[in-house]
Amino acid sequence: MRPHIIFRYVGIVLLFNGFFLSVAAIISFCHHQSDFLPLLYSAAITILFGIFPLIYVPSSSQINNNEGLVIVVSSWLLSCLIGILPYILYGGEFTLVNAWFESVSGFTTTGSSILTNIEVLPFGLLFWRAATHWIGGIGIIVFVLAVIPAIGQASMLLSRSEISPLARKNFQYRTRKILKILLFVYLSLTFLETILLTFCGMGVFDAITHSFATIATGGFSTKNASIAYFDNTAIELVIIVFMVLSGLHFGILYATASGKIREMWESGVVRFYIGTMLAGVILVALYIHGTIFEKWAEALRHAAFQVVSLGTSTGFATTDTGSWPAFTIIILIYFTLQCACSGSTSGGIKVERMLLFWKFVRTKIKKLKYPKAVVSLKMDNSFVPEDVVTTSLLFITLYLAVVFLSTLLLTAMGVDILSAFSGTAACMGNVGPGFGMFSSLANYSQLPEAGKVVLTVVMLLGRLEIFGLILFLSAGSWK
Question: What confidence score (pLDDT) does residue 156 get?
Answer without folding.
Answer: 43
